[in-house]
Structures are given as C-alpha cells and as structure tokens.
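Figure 6 in text form: structure in, sequence out.
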C-alpha cells in the first residue's frame, strides 16, 4: 500500500537536496513523514516530531481511508493495539506456577 522513501536532509548538491528543496524542508531539520500522491501533494498532513508506532499507523490508516482504499485488518489491529503502548501499557507480566 505504501512505498517507503528516505531523503537525507543533511546533504547539499545532490538528488536528496533537490527533493528536500522541492518539499520546502529545511536542511538539518527533524525527520518528517509524508504520505503523498503521485504529484507529491499530501494525502494527510505531514507527520513531524512524533514518529511513534501509534502515530505512524494512524497516518497510514487515515491515508487509506481518505483514498477510499481497504485498510488491511493487520493495520487496523496495529493501530488499535499500539495506542495502548502510547497510553502507558507497554509490558504485561504473567506469573507461572
């Protein structure tokens, strides 16, 4: 459903710098996540300063919903289950006797 891409924001004079400039991202800024159309317009707002699993999963779900595409069950489950981790439920310990 998505093609990941990494554009380095700390280089000048190469393809990465041209892409960074095309998206109006400053050099040496924090990483951002963009879910974009083929024409590079945003499907959902760019994700910045929060690269947690709940936020990234929610962004992917929102993009698929906006594009009227089926959201895979695993992605909905990942989104729902990861919210618990963000809300402080990170570890469960079960005793065995």
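Output sequence:
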């Amino acid at each position: 459903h998505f093609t990941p891409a990494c554009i380095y924001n700390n280089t000048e004079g190469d393809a990465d710098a041209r892409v960074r400039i095309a998206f109006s991202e400053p050099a040496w800024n924090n990483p951002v996540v963009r879910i974009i159309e083929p024409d590079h317009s945003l499907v959902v707002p760019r994700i910045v300063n929060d690269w947690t699993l709940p936020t990234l999963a929610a962004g992917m779900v929102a993009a698929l919903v906006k594009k009227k595409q089926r959201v895979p069950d695993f992605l909905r489950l990942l989104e729902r289950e990861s919210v618990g981790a963000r809300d402080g439920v990170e570890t469960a310990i079960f005793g065995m006797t």
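Caption detail: The first strand starts at residue 32 and ends at 33.
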